[in-house]
Every structure is written in structure tokens, then in C-alpha cells.
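Bumping with the actual sequence this time:
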Amino acid sequence: MKNKKLFGIIAVVIVLAVAAVIGVGVAKNKTDNTPDTTTEGTVDSFVENTASSAETEVNTDNSQTEAQSEFTSEASSTEALAEEESSVPAQAYTSIEDIVKLYNTSVNRVKSEAKQLTRNYKKLSSMDNYLQLPSAIESIGRSAINTFVKGENEPQSWTKKEDIKIIFPVGKEDYSSHLTADMVESATCKDNGNTFQIDIKLYNDKLTSPAKGKGYAGVFNTVTASTFEEISIPTVTFHTVKVNGINGRISCTIDKATGRVIKANYKNADILYLGVKVAFADFDVQFALNAEEDYTIKY
């Protein structure tokens, strides 16, 4: 399946939907106080058009032969390392540093070695305690967010390498984790016989609007400030964009015999602080999106 609406793209659509609502509200307030009956159609049309363009981003520049060659080469080197790791007793994985190393080594093999990726579900929700909108449009803004912040409960599977690269964290990158020990508040590794169960709790991100590969943007499918640079909507300008990642959690199951991740669950939230200019009006907008993605991987 081709590139679906990734978490970051969905977040952008929601932000722009709120911006569109703000624009309609400003124009209406200048004329009269009668209810605005065109808002829903305006937002629906905008989201539909934006979402449609977001679904055509799969990169097919490299040939299948070249891609397979690279994946085979990576697999050879990582399999040897995984065998060495899996021979270490579970009690050796007690420090945060050792657990992070085991996790990175295992999860960074997914995109090169997986034959099938299944996303069991993706949950999205707005965090009301972070929502701050101009009072004039707060009610309709909340309604818009609740309407468009939706996850996907039906399982979806991908078998093409390029699709797996796009979907699995970190989306569109060759790696899945640049996690570092100083990002981790706590970590455990439990020996369940044939598998290791790793659970990691992250500190709130120390970086604001990190570049991809840094902080939360190097671990999760997260919103990045650079995404907004690509947005071109008449009368809408984001003159301030700040993103902070919070509440990061990682859980994964590693097969001890192969050192491969067979299950993974990610939880994180993005707080967005936006300065939005719509026509001749400036607004400050803040909201947060809570996300959870659950995967099963076959090799």
C-alpha cells in the first residue's frame, strides 16, 4: 500500500483545519454575528485536498535490485552482531546504557530485514489540557480538532521495503532509532525464556523543534518544525513554530535466537506552539497530539 497519511502529515492537516476555521471566523466577525454555516464545508474541503496530496510521497528513485543489495549487506553485518548480543545473559542488560544498545541494535534491523510489517493500530487524541485557542473560535476549534484527530483501528500490513521504510519509525529514514542513554528516565529488560521484553520511559525532550534524527525526532514518527516550511496556503502563514515532545514510551519484544524485534509499541505526544497569521489577523495557537502505534514484524 502506498504512503498513507503519516502521523506528521495528519497533524499538519489538523493545524491547517484550525487555521481555516480561524480565517472563516475572522471574516464573519467583520460583518455580523449570525451563525456561520459554511465552516464545515470549508474545513472538510481543505482537509480532503491536503490529505490527498500527502498520500503521493513514496520515493521510488532507486531500483529494487539496488535496494535489495543494500539491505542484504546491512543484514549480514547486523546478524553477526545480533548473534553476539543474544549470547549475553539477560542479567547483563540491567543498565540503561546496555538496554539502549540492545534496543538500537535490534530495532535498526527492522527496515533492512523485515518481510512484513503490520501496524495493528494507530491511536491519536488531542490533549485538552494543552489546548489554547483564541476565545472567539475556541468552541469551533475544539470541534474541528475532535473531528479530524482520529486513529486507525484496522490492522494494515506492508511487504515492500520502501513502504516499511516510510511507515515504521522513524518514517522515511533508513534507521529506526537514534535513542541515547541520556534521553532515558528508566529502562528494564525482562527475560521471558525465548524473548526479551524491553520497556523504556523517556524524559520529556530536552530539544525544541529538533531536526530529524535528534531527540524525539530520532525515535518516533513525530511532527517536526520543518514540515511547516513546506506548507503553502493562501492567506495563512506560520510565523512561529515550536514543537516539544513529551511522554515518550517504547515497548518491544526481541526474539533471543535471532536478536530481531518481533513486536513494538510506541507512545509519545507533541506539543505545538504556533503563531498563525490569517489574512490580516495574528493568533497564537497551542495544542498537543497524543499518539500510540503498535506493530508486529515478520522476517
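The C-alpha cells above came from a reply further down the thread. The helical segments are 7-29, 39-54, 64-86, 96-107, 110-113, 138-148, 161-167.
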